[in-house]
Each structure stands twice: as structure tokens, then as C-alpha cells.
Amino acid sequence: MKILVTGAAGFIGANFVYYELGRFPDDEIVGLDALTYAGNLETLDEALKNPKFKFVKADITDAAAIDALFAAEAFDLVINFAAESHVDRSIEDPGIFLRTNILGTQVLMDAALKYKVPRYHQVSTDEVYGDLPLNRPDLLFTERTPIHTSSPYSASKASADLLCQAYLRTFGLPATISRCSNNYGPYQFPEKLIPLMIANCLADKPLPVYGEGLNVRDWLYVVDHCKAIDLVARSDRIGEVYNIGGHNEMTNIDIVKLILKALGKPESLITYVTDRKGHDMRYAIDPQKITTDLGWAPETMFADGIVRTIDWYLTNRDWWERITSGEYLAYYEKMYGDR
Ligand code: NAD
Ligand code: DAU
User: Fold this and answer.
1) Residue 149 lies in a domain
2) What's 243's domain CATH number?
3) Cα(5) to centroid(ligand 2), Å
4) How many angstroms separate the CA atoms of 49 and 301, rounded?
5) Residue 76 belongs to what H/E stretch?
6) Domain that holds residue 286
7) Is the CB–ligand 2 distance for residue 125 below 6 Å?
8) Averaged pLDDT of the chain
């Protein structure tokens, strides 16, 4: 099997590459990435030592480059992780989100059709469902929940998701789609909640909590997400959409306090800042369908996963300290400077 993994130098894409190389040593993997601010080739250092892995620097919106790659390699499976992924950045500059997340997906699907790739998997997100109220803990997102988006990021991901369904129905693209909740784990860029709070804690910097910190996310250890995508993409369930979630709802403030405690830092570092515009209140996934159809269930308890994640950031300071210089410093100042 030859697999194209787009967004391979990002957080989930890289974790997926390592999962596949470990689990299916005979498969060949081509990791593609444009190496935007969020992509880091260093993350793939170990994978690059494996003769079954090859890296290609390319932009998924570059139709000529993607066509040439598909012509040269006979892919059996394409998994599209490549995206602009940070909600706050989408509020500052929506354009790049529409280009990469929508048009890039179209370019990949056109190539998959042209070269008759037997399987395409679109990595979507639970943000396509909008949010749930805090006072209705009985409500969960199912695959039948209407698409209803809040941010330019989620609107662009929903557009790609719908476009994938359109290619499936209109052109017969043999596709599957997964919609996962918030991931955490190694190699996550420190602009996202958990690594940002760990990095700030270690530097004794203020921990910027949006609004009152009462927003709820359903956290899943990244390797559990990778296992789920692998199961869906290798299954015979063409045309299906699967929700993936951790059954692990937590408020942001509880996560922040847990990180402070684990690192032995005072709660006085918490700073409540202006809320995110259009901030989704609560995400909660019902993953029953993937459990029933494919036998998937989250394996890593949050209590273990968060300790593993904090340890990873403690022992891999070089990795995140290098990427939190340069462009990231300017971003941080712009987003948090006078918030
Ligand atoms: P990330 O930002 O860490 O990684 C995205 C990668 O895509 C980066 O390496 C970046 O360089 C690359 N990329 C960006 N634009 C590109 C382009 N035009 N061409 C080629 N590569 C490009 O994001 P992530 O958290 O790893 O998310 C991966 C995917 O999973 C995204 O599609 C995201 O929407 C989805 N997702 C993420 C989460 C989460 O909690 N992080 C949850 C559900 C779904
Ligand atoms: O649910 C899946 C989505 O999860 C993915 O599709 C996105 O790619 C991913 O970025 C993530 O989106 P969120 O917006 O939920 O993640 P983020 O880490 O940006 O924020 C998590 C929560 O923490 C959210 O309620 C906002 C809050 N927050 C975030 C940051 C960066 C803060 O309070 N302070 C912060 O500094």
C-alpha cells in the first residue's frame, strides 16, 4: 500500500506518519507539506531515517505540483490532514483558510479522481457542527447533527467536508470523512491551548484564559485519533462520515489549573483576557457509530495522556523553543499584547 499523507509535518499528520510506520512497516508513506509556520520538518527527523518514508515539500493548492506527484506515484490511499488549523488566526485573516482548506481539498480530490486513487480520506473536525449549550449536557454531536459553523476556520472545514460529499455523490470519489474533537499530545504547535499553557507556565508567563474559561472541549489523545483515522480509511465503509471523540469534556479553566498543578506553578499566573470572537461554548462528540461499525474506542485516559504530554514538552524543549521564536513571537504580541 502506498499512502499520501498531506500536512505530514504538522501535529496530527506527523503523529499519523509515526503510527503508520510502526503499525504497517511494509507500507510506503509519502508525507507532503508546504511547511507553513505550523509545519516543522524536524518533527519528521526519525521518519526520514525510514526507507519506507519520503517527504515532498508542496502546497496542496498548487494544482500542477499535485498533478505531477499523483502522476509519478500510484497512491492507494490519500489522507488529507493539510490545513490552516488555528481558529484565532482565521479570525485575523480568513483568506488563507479558504484557499488552503477549501481549494486545496478540491485540488487533491481532482487529482484523486484523475488518477483513480482507490481511496480518499478527508480529515474534518467537530467544529463543523457549531457548538452546544452548557446547560444541556444531554446533547452530543452525532453524524446527523446539522452543519452550523461559527468561525472562518470552521466554515472553511465545513466547506471542504461538504465538497468531499459532493465529489462522492457526483463523481463517485471513493471517500470517507472523519470529524474529531480537540486533540492533544506531542508535536502540537504552542499556539493551541494545552501546549501554549505548558510553555507559558515553564516561562512563568501569564496564562491567557479567554472570557471566563468556562468553554468546554472534548479532549482526545492524538494517537487515539490516528488509530481511528487508520481504521476508517482502511475499512470498506466508502461514503461514511464518522465522529471521533474522547468522552472527555473539560472546561478550559480546569485544564489550565491542572497544568499549573502538574508543573508546581501558582494559580496567580492565570490572566483572564478578552474572549475570542464568536467563541464556541461546548463541543461534545457521540462516537457510537465508529464504535459499533469499526470497534474503535478511546484508549488513553486524559489523566495519563496529559502527564505524558507535559513530560514530552519538558523533555523536548528544543523542539518548541525553536518554533516559538521569529514569526510566532510577532503573532503572540499581536494576539495577546494588549488583549
Ligand atoms: P497543524 O496546523 O498542526 O498542521 C497542519 C499542517 O498542514 C502543517 O504542517 C502545515 O504546514 C500544513 N499545511 C498548511 N497549509 C498547507 C498547504 N497549502 N499545502 C500543504 N500543507 C499545508 O494542524 P493539526 O492540528 O495537525 O490538524 C491537522 C488536521 O486535522 C486539520 O485538517 C485540522 O482541521 C484537523 N483537526 C484538528 C484537530 C485538532 O484538535 N488539532 C481536531 C480535529 C480535526
Ligand atoms: O474541535 C476540534 C478543533 O480543536 C480543531 O478543528 C482545531 O484545528 C483545533 O485548533 C481546536 O480548536 P479550538 O479552538 O477548540 O482549540 P484551541 O486550542 O485554539 O482552544 C481551545 C480552547 O481554549 C478554546 O475554548 C479557546 C481557549 N483558549 C485558547 C487559547 C489559544 C484560551 O482560553 N486561551 C488561549 O490562549
Assistant:
1) yes
2) 3.40.50.720
3) 24
4) 31
5) none
6) 2-188+221-247+279-300
7) yes
8) 97
